[in-house]
Specification:
This protein is mainly beta. The protein has 1 helix and 17 strands.
């Protein structure tokens, strides 16, 4: 009888230990992957009316490697107030451009976290200073096709506090592969006669000042007659 009771006690104790072990194992949740945000403002001192800009790279930890975090929703805050919402592309990259009032500021990029990724943030300071100069912003370009001609026109961008001296015109017959076609003095129109009928041409334009070359316009295309 004593031996039987002893076996019962051992069995119950073993069952409790096993149950506790299973419970403890199940209670340990897998930690959410760590997320990292990298961004560096292109210029920390800009004149009034000029944007502060940056590309933001977001990566996450996966199988012991840092990989791009695509479609990450980011909140961009200046001095604690949300001013932009951007989403990363397939390479984990998003572009930021923001015009602030005069004075010193702090820009913070925040990923709030989700069901499978931890929260992350990164901040940098910048200033909008009268007299500061930077490269021009991007022109807004349009292209109109005619008989053996493509007419380009664009709006003059913010000059970055330094007079625009030159516009660079880029062209290609393959989207995304534009190379420098010509540079012209300050102006907002250009007629491209070196074209073939029925061929589609892709264009971009940038502005230059004493600080250097600014951002490219969005790509446009036209097919001359």
């Amino acid at each position: 009888m004593k031996e039987r009771n002893l076996r019962g006690v051992i069995a119950v104790a073993l069952g409790v230990c096993l149950s506790v072990g299973v419970f403890a194992t199940n209670a340990i949740a897998k930690p959410a992957p760590v997320t990292k945000i990298h961004f560096k403002l292109d210029d920390h001192n800009v004149p009034p009316g000029s944007p502060v800009t940056s590309d933001v790279l977001v990566r996450t930890r996966s199988n012991h490697e840092w990989v791009p975090f695509a479609n990450a929703l980011l909140s961009v805050r200046v001095d604690g107030t949300q001013v932009l919402t951007v989403t990363t592309d397939a390479n984990g990259v998003a572009a930021i451009s923001y015009v602030a009032a005069a004075g010193g500021h702090v820009m913070k990029v925040v990923f709030a976290g989700d069901a499978t990724h931890k929260r992350a943030q990164r901040a940098q300071g910048f200033a909008v200073v009268t007299g500061a100069t930077t490269v021009p912003s991007a022109p807004t370009l349009t292209a109109t096709a005619g008989l053996l001609i493509v007419h380009l026109s664009w709006t003059a961008p913010a000059d970055g506090g330094s007079t625009i001296t030159t516009y660079n015109i880029y062209r290609s017959t393959i989207s995304g592969s534009e190379v420098l076609l010509t540079s012209i003095p300050a102006g907002t129109v250009f007629d491209d006669f070196a074209v073939l009928s029925g061929t589609t041409y892709f264009y971009e334009v940038s502005a230059m000042n004493a600080e250097g070359e600014g951002a490219m316009s969005l790509e446009v295309s036209a097919t001359p007659l």
